[in-house]
Each structure stands twice: as structure tokens, then as C-alpha cells.
């Protein structure tokens, strides 16, 4: 009888402890916009682009209730990057581009009941992948990977203990691509600050 009572007590204690534990991990899936500003560097080449849309998958591991490490993978569907210069002729060069990001970040969050603002920053890479079709006017372009710095801030709204809606502004600082083009010279020697608004849903476990 004592053994049964002890077993029931331990089971109840374990249930209380398990219920008291907070989720330490989450995964999220978001839709993204990708806005590249016009850039003109110390060469004669200027670069402009239209908007791109894509998706971002993220994984967070909570170190403490207010700090976490995050891993991200993002991809855009496509957008057109246009290079203009006297040496490139009147029409310039347009590259139909699919862009990927792989990044990591430290996340600091602030809890206000159901609202959880957060900021983050970290390193990563951006992969500019030319799509060789009628949207790309030069077939000399090649895939290019650049080192990048990522930063952002946003807010998560808890809709249940397991789910929240997450909206964020993300920024990506990286070198403007030149697609390693030859013989055409698409280099600007300039830096991008790409704007990436993001909204999605996170699941905590």
C-alpha cells in the first residue's frame, strides 16, 4: 500500500513539474517580402530591382525565458535585378534572380502578457541564383554567394500556449551582387541594406 501511495505521489509530482515547464523550442513559417533599394557605388554601374516574395522557415531554442538562438532558411520566388551603365548599352543587363538565405541569430525578447516584442541579430550568407530564361538578358551571369549580416525587430502575439502570430521587420546587409559576370562588368563595389518584412505563425513545443 505504501509503495502504491508513493508511486501515485511521484506520478502527480511529475505531472505538475511537466505542466509547469515552459516550451523551450519553436518553429515558424512566414511569408516574406524582399525589397532591394537602388544602389550606385564607386563605379559607373547602378542597380535597381523590383520586389520579390518568398518564404522563411525558422527554428528557435530558448536559452532563458527571454533569450534564444535562431536558425533561418529563406527563399524568394524570383525578382528582376537590373544593371545600368554606359558600358552596358542603352538597355543594360537584367538578371532574373532567385535568392536564398541561410542565417543564425541571437534573439532577445520582452514579455508583456500575450505580447512578446523581440530584437535579433546575427551572421549568414545570401545566395543569388540567376534563372536563365527570357527574363535574363545576359547568359554570362553565374551563381554568387555573399557574406551577410542580419538584424531585425518584431512582435509575437500569443493566440494559444502552443501558437503565436509573428510579425517582423528584417534587414540584410550584404554586398550588391555582380553575378561574377564576364565579359560584362556588373560590379558596383556597394553594399545592400535589403528590407525584408515578414509575417507568419510559430508553433511552440
Structural write-up:
The structure is a single chain. With 205 residues, the protein is mostly beta strands. It has a single domain (24-204), classed as Beta Barrel (Porin), CATH 2.40.160.20. The protein has one helix at 2-20; strands at 25-34, 39-40, 46-49, 52-64, 67-76, 79-84, 93-109, 115-130, 144-158, 163-175, 191-204. It has an eight-stranded antiparallel barrel with strand order 1-4-5-7-8-9-10-11.
What's the helix and strand layout?
Blueprint: H1 2-20, E1 25-34, E2 39-40, E3 46-49, E4 52-64, E5 67-76, E6 79-84, E7 93-109, E8 115-130, E9 144-158, E10 163-175, E11 191-204
Antiparallel strand pairs: 1-4, 1-11, 2-3, 3-6, 4-5, 5-7, 6-7, 7-8, 8-9, 9-10, 10-11
Short summary:
The chain has about 200 residues and is mostly beta strands. Helices cover about 10% and strands about 60% of the residues.
Q: How many structural units, i.e. domains?
A: 1
CATH architecture: Beta Barrel
Strand count, sense and barrel status of the largest sheet are:
8 strands, antiparallel, barrel
> Which class do the helix and strand fractions yield?
mainly beta
User: Helicity level, as a percent range?
Assistant: under 10%
> Can you write the helix and strand succession as a string?
HEEEEEEEEEEE
Beta-strand percent range: over 45%
Shape: elongated
Number of helices: 1
Please state the average pLDDT score. Answer: 90
Report how far the terminal alpha carbons are from each other: 37 Å
Cα Rg: 23 Å
Instruction: Supply the CATH class.
Output: Mainly Beta
Amino acid at each position: 500500500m505504501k509503495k502504491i501511495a508513493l508511486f501515485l505521489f511521484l506520478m502527480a509530482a511529475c505531472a505538475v513539474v511537466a505542466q509547469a515547464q515552459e516550451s523551450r523550442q519553436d518553429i515558424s513559417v512566414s511569408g516574406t517580402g524582399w525589397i532591394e533599394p537602388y544602389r550606385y557605388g564607386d563605379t559607373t554601374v547602378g542597380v535597381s530591382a523590383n520586389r520579390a516574395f518568398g518564404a522563411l522557415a525558422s527554428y528557435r531554442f530558448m536559452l532563458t525565458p527571454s533569450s534564444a538562438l535562431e536558425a533561418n532558411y529563406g527563399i524568394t520566388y524570383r525578382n528582376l535585378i537590373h544593371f545600368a551603365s554606359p558600358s552596358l548599352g542603352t538597355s543594360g543587363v537584367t538578371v532574373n534572380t532567385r535568392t536564398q538565405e541561410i542565417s543564425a541569430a541571437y534573439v532577445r525578447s520582452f514579455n508583456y502578457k500575450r505580447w512578446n516584442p523581440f530584437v535579433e541579430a546575427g551572421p549568414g550568407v545570401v545566395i543569388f541564383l540567376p534563372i536563365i530564361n527570357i527574363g535574363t538578358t545576359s547568359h554570362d551571369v553565374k551563381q554568387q554567394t555573399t557574406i551577410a549580416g542580419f538584424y531585425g525587430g518584431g512582435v509575437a502575439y500569443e493566440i494559444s500556449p502552443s501558437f503565436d502570430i509573428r510579425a517582423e521587420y528584417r534587414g540584410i546587409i550584404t554586398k550588391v551582387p555582380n553575378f561574377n559576370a564576364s565579359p560584362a562588368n556588373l560590379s558596383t563595389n556597394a553594399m545592400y541594406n535589403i528590407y525584408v518584412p515578414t509575417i507568419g505563425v510559430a508553433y511552440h513545443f
